[in-house]
């Protein structure tokens, strides 16, 4: 799995989406079909389109890789010195954003989000905070170029407690400022299971309510919900405790009763692989165990044959039909398999995602039909 030479002609029109009537729109994160520094974005967009997806979550690393290619190309030709700041990172990011938007339009793809804007809230270093605010302004410009309804995903910070404060009021203050800076571009806040101060969806939802800005909402990720309350890859069972099922049920009941679907900007689907509890990537010094697991061992839903074991369908039902959500549902996996330099990586991962989407959406729709009188 990998990329081809990036020079292939445009693919034939994408096949129609699954025949199942649905209010959900299929998207996939570009990171899910290949590593940005190995597999060219053009190839990834080709296979995403031909496998029936209509939207993408654009990983910033993919955009920046295109920017670096543009800068290398310019370095081999005379540069127009009248173009102010044309050698800066921001300048080439902007050029890349215009190019990527055009590439997506040619393939019938909508850009859903730009992500992830990591480790922003609660910064203790004032200089670093000022730098990140400037960076957010840049990302807002990129999001505006990429489309009229692109949101920026902000995952909860996983910096050390000596780098980021955990005071709720401070987090709300920082994220309120982010919403004001980005307006009218939307921001979606996501609780990472290994977040230092915010690692449960309940905590991120509380912050979304406190920020109370129309352009500030939430993103639910089935892997992070499961990893936060149900799973532990370092145990033989793969579960956090004997009460894992009960704890998950209680959490999902709260979710379905408390969350306003209009504040949910995206749903992300991923399972987790049951791995050897002694796997090296689970035990990297100064790195959260769940982070190592997430970066190496996510799977698409319905991939039990590859080791998937989390209660993903149950969570997916709660965060979609359970709250009355309609909109983008994105396949988002991180995996050691995407770093294989085989040229078949993007094609194989996109095909796996399409098969997973078909099985998932049919299961979700069957649930909705059973609820109908």
TrEMBL record:
The keyword Cell division appears for this protein: no
A Pfam family hit: AP_endonuc_2
Region described as Disordered: 1-21
InterPro entries referenced in this protein's UniProt entry, alphabetically: IolE/XylAMocC-like, Xyl_isomerase-like_sf, Xyl_isomerase-like_TIM-brl
Alphabetically ordered keywords of this record: Isomerase
Domain Xylose isomerase-like TIM barrel: from-to ranges: 46-357
Gene Ontology molecular functions: isomerase activity
Presence of keyword Isomerase: yes
Biased composition (Polar residues): 1-10
PANTHER family xref list: HYDROXYPYRUVATE ISOMERASE, XYLOSE ISOMERASE-LIKE TIM BARREL DOMAIN-CONTAINING PROTEIN
Protein name from the UniProt record: Xylose isomerase-like protein
Organism: Byssochlamys spectabilis
